[in-house]
């Protein structure tokens, strides 16, 4: 029994697949396409261990297509071209059987490797299915991205993960031979981090560590047995999300010491330099924003710099940026403002743009009153004229509340001087 439990339990059909109902449930956007065999080239984006590879295999089986796979870690342009040539000979344009080419970790493909896929995708020689844990908008070249549908795979819910454990106890020929009493699951779920593969392999380790036919699983028993086998499960990259979370929280908490420690952990672990820089760029807006607008400039410059320099020198640039951001005043006012605005849009729908601030490029639009009574701010004292910029149904709604820091206090004073008491600044 050398095959791991996660592999033995890998679903073979849509009916056995757990999770991702928004894609492959009866009303899912992919369900009917799979059933009809009309599969576009696509990219699955989501965290590790949530079934990206499994879903690609199921699509191939359900649509009865040849299946080719490449890993971006150990495949070059020659490998891509060789597979495409084989695919052309086994299917092709105008057939319902054009092969599926699955590329795991497609975000690790270089530009030239991605370029080598373009003609095959465009001509229909293959249906590309890529899998990535990174935002494809950043990691996939625009020409290839425009030829693919992007589907987001969500993390497993607690009920999904518990269903996987139940299936293992009932369906696996080895695990089912034991009388397993699953008394507690919190430790299993926490250690797995939502990764189904890791969950099942930890579960198998715990079960197999007991010689008796009856196995009682509690949080304490799981922690004791897994901690004794740390090396077996602590592979490079599995702490990816925990460590980046600690890094971000250290900066948000204004602790440069914690920030550089977790930064060092990521660097020593071989984390992608652009992934770290991208998170700093997001944080500069989300957690600092207008409290120190220079933070965004520093973070953007850091991202550009590490993109062309790489390791080992990039560690210095990342350290400078991380410590600067940690030492900056904090504000999430811009983040909260766009959250509030988007929520308001969802609640109120497509409200009409007030006539006075509509564009009037044609004579008819002018006759209909578009742009009437609009006050051009620069024609007034202090370059300001009070008027309403929101739809009538939500006029006077305040969405941006400046944070409590010296820079945003100055912004609040500015707004108060212009809008007096309208928005309550």
Task: Report on this structure.
- With about 425 residues, the protein is α/β, with parallel strands linked by helices.
- It folds into 4 domains: about 20-150, Rossmann fold, CATH 3.40.50.300; about 160-235, Helicase, Ruva Protein, domain 3 (Orthogonal Bundle), CATH 1.10.8; about 240-325, Zinc Finger, Delta Prime, domain 3; about 335-420, Orthogonal Bundle (post-AAA+ oligomerization domain-like), CATH 1.10.3710.10.
- Helix content is about 50%, strand content about 10%.
- It has 21 helices and 7 strands.
- It has helices spanning about 5-10, 20-25, 30-35, 50-60, 75-90, 110-125, 135-140, 140-145, 160-170, 185-190, 195-210, 220-225, 230-235, 240-250, 255-270, 275-290, 295-310, 315-325, 335-350, 365, 405-420; strands spanning about 40-45, 65-70, 100-105, 125-130, 150, 180, 215.
- It has a 5-stranded parallel sheet, with helices on both faces.
- Helix 6 links the parallel strand 3 and strand 4.
- About 30% of the residues are buried.
For the report, how would you describe the main beta sheet?
A: 5 strands, parallel
Q: What's the shape?
A: globular
Examine the coordinates and then state which fold CATH places here, giving the name of the CATH topology of the largest domain.
Rossmann fold
Instruction: Tell me the strand percentage band.
Output: 5-15%
Strand order of the largest sheet: 2-3-4-1-5
Give the low-confidence spans: 92-96, 229-238
Specify Rg, calculated over alpha carbons. 27 Å
Instruction: Determine the CATH superfamily of the largest domain.
Output: P-loop containing nucleotide triphosphate hydrolases
Helix content: 40-55%
Helix count equals: 21
